Amino acid sequence: MMDAIGSDFPLWLRAQHLLNFILMGMLIRSGVEMLSSLPRLWWRNDCAPGTEWLKFTKRELPKEEGVYTSLMDEKSVHPALSLPGRENIGLGRHWHGVSVMLWVLNGLIYVILLFATGLWRRIIPTSWDVFPEAFESLKMYLSLQVPDLSHFSPYDSLQMLGYTFVIFILAPFMMITGVAMAPAIRARFPRFVKMLGGHQGARSLHFIGLVMFTGFIIVHVALVFLVHREHNVIHMVFGGGEVATARVAQATVIIVSTIVAVTVFWIALSYWSLADRARAQRFTAGFTEIGRKIFLNKLRPLGKKNAVYTAEDISEFHWTNGLPPTDEESPEWLAARERNWDGLTITVRDDINGVEKQLSVEDLKKLPKHSYIATHTCMQGWSATSEWAGVRLTDLMAILGPRPEGARYLLAESYGLAQKMYDNRPREPFYAAIDLETMEEEESILAYERNGKPLDDHLGAPARLRVESNHGYKHVKWVSRIMWIHDYAEYGDGRGGTREDSALQAFNGRI
């Protein structure tokens, strides 16, 4: 609610208020899309079935690992309620990133101008008297009475406490819990993420913050029209001035029309995205990559120098996204599994010069072994902590000799296929490309063991990619081939991986 006596609301303040309203709506709607892709919340990091503290689905999970994928748990939400809706987690994540970047920028400008103009004194209490006064206002509201206009200068004590909490506590809290879910942050600052309760703790706290923000917005908008409406609408639209009947009516029409227009914009954004999802992916992923380049790409993991996870953190349960290859997908993989992987080969290739070598699982185990404990996260939201062991990608590719001239990426292919394609075309072989800096990270390996045992079939046996600074869609399971390439644009749909092609994720999986 806004009101004033002898004070005004400058144009920059009103403009930022409107922009914040638009962006908060985009954040909440894209957040709904992200939550709908895994409509369950946990405090424990292994996300074991039946241990959710909150869920938005009636589906019951099987207790057995590897028979139920996270994509099977996805729910479809109408575009009127989410951005973009209809099981498009990739675009939902991109729109959330776009909204976050603009919301944070708008917030920084707001706070700077707030202190530069001295208007901070309207919001931030400067006396302890604000608490008893706020309590009196609260009692008055609860008794369905309205404080006298003289209490607002321009805000009453309860409003001041509310605005201070939302701007300087809740907003930073949402930023902190949001970035804590990024693999790049977890790989570089694992103690920080662990302090928040790990990935699931951060995710649950972020959801609680979302509920608080949504509640604040509902109450805030309601009070505008219920408490001294004439003064509120005049100051929100015109910044101040005479409170006359004609001006009040004009301001009310403008506010209601603006709310309707913003709501139409929110929904239109969903339908625009769904009308051409590849176009929406190019725009949103390209926009959010600006933020990744400025911030996350500079945060390289420190590996064992920064290790904080121990055997006590290892998860009892591990979700999967994707089931082992079928006879239709790879009879070669199935036959080799019956022989305990005897005869199965993994190709290490220089695709620039056409040079390759074939390795058996036993050949892999002869290379230097590297192990560590890390938390795996899926872009849908689940997580699990395991001890992984295998060969570092740098050691693996060294068997071909020096890195070939022109090699800019490493690409891994799977014996399995994509779960589904966003445009419903036939499923294609699963693959993912990573840049060379990511490949050279200490915890980028071709893993053949988990928790001291050979990999389970549903987790990628006999060998899978592990890239701990990225989400799980870059961690190719059932690896058949891994190779130097010049440009990932020459493979698949040219987006850098199957999840990028099939679900319109970003090539950069660091957040």
UniProtKB/TrEMBL annotation:
User: Where are the annotated coiled coils located?
Assistant: none
Signal sequence residues: none
Q: Where are the transmembrane segments?
A: 12-32, 100-120, 160-185, 205-228, 248-272
Name the membrane topology term.
Answer: Multi-pass membrane protein
Oxidoreductase molybdopterin-binding domain mapped to chain residues? 345-484
Q: Does the keyword Chloroplast apply?
A: no
- What's the protein here called? Sulfite oxidase and related enzymes
Protein source organism: Bowdeniella nasicola
